[in-house]
Write a structure and sequence with these properties.
single chain, mainly alpha, about 45% helix, globular, disordered N terminus
């Protein structure tokens, strides 16, 4: 199993303790969404928790940088966690209410992929925001492009 690491950043290093999404997500919701991942994918509980955690770290980072038009993009594996979170619409609306000033963060996927480095730039931003980064879950998608780049969607 790969360990979670904070990525080294030359221009904007992560300082202080690394934050964990487990401090943000209620236990019952976490357990439910881990169970959904295990039901829908060939994941054991360890892998399901890794994927879900990175999905939350990505979404919370996207919300924290709303309006900056950064063209953030999750990897293919992290996107599985994102989909699990956003498909639980009541809980996702509550997340947006609490962490996105009550505004819904839309998901606008693109069909075409491009190799633009957006996935690893996003992983670096997640780390710079202090979230735990499981680098091996981000490295699977060098060809993943931002969803509707430059907007306040993901």
């Amino acid at each position: 199993m790969a360990s979670a690491v904070a990525l080294p950043l030359a221009a904007d290093p992560t300082t202080g303790p690394v934050r964990s999404v487990r401090e943000v997500v209620p236990v019952a919701l976490w357990d439910k969404q881990v169970g959904l991942l295990m039901r829908d994918y060939p994941y054991d509980s360890v892998m399901a928790e890794r994927v879900l955690g990175q999905g939350y770290a990505y979404l919370l980072t996207a919300m924290a940088h709303r309006g900056e038009r950064l063209g953030l993009a999750p990897s293919k594996l992290v996107d599985i966690g994102v989909h699990t979170i956003i498909l639980d619409t009541v809980a996702y609306a509550e997340l947006c209410e609490k962490y996105n000033n009550g505004e819904f963060l839309h998901h606008v996927p693109k069909v075409d992929f491009k190799q633009d480095g957006s996935v690893m730039r996003t992983a670096h931003l997640v780390a710079a925001d202090g979230w735990e980064v499981d680098l091996s879950l981000w490295a699977d998608a060098a060809d993943c492009s931002p969803c509707h780049p430059g907007s306040d969607s993901h």
